[in-house]
Amino acid sequence: xxxxxxxxxxxxxxxxLLTFAPMSAMAxxxxxxxxxxxxxxxxxxxxHAARVFILEAAERGIVRGFPNGNFNxxxxxxxxxxxxxxxxxxxRPAARNPATFTDIAGHWAAPAITWVAEMGIAAxxxxxxxxxNDMIQRQELFxxxxxxxxxxxxxxxxxxxxxxxxxxxxxxxxxxxAENAIMWLHAAGLVRGDGxxxxxxQGAANRAEIVVFVMRFIEEFMD
Length: 223
What we know:
Largest sheet: none
Number of strands: 0
Strand content: under 5%
Number of domains: 1
Number of helices: 7
Low-confidence stretches: 1-37
Distance between the termini: 6 Å
Helix content: 25-40%
């Protein structure tokens, strides 16, 4: 994968057509080509709005399914799974130092968690914990991607205009540490509100939505 090093100003001029929106809003976006004969993930059948994105992500080693063969597209994502996705996007680099979290010893995602923490992409919880099995909120996921863009892809900073600074009706629900991340992703065209103008920062995005979001990011900025 190539690192994307163009400035955010160029990204905004180009008007990237990426959204973190309901599946019904994804029909006008170019999708990867995957043979429909692919029998992986029987719970993501032909015709599923995210099928080609999920299969492409699995083929590229970005995500994987469960031992029973399913992908669980409507399920939520844990902090460990989010760390693993970002680590896979970076092609699994080794961390230079051991992690200080006391709750990841022997965890399947420990190498990924160690790397994202070392890079400053993800932070732990009080008490030297990472809480790998906790569900990740939308605003946490947006913050992780924002941190990944800055730390790994070396994206430049940007400045919001007053009109762009509070675009969502539920802006007051966004925690302070996530506001810059959400505003950047919105300005870049990656995140938009729902029909009521809400971004639902404290909600959980399902696994299918997250994969579509991640694969669009990769296609535009990293391929």
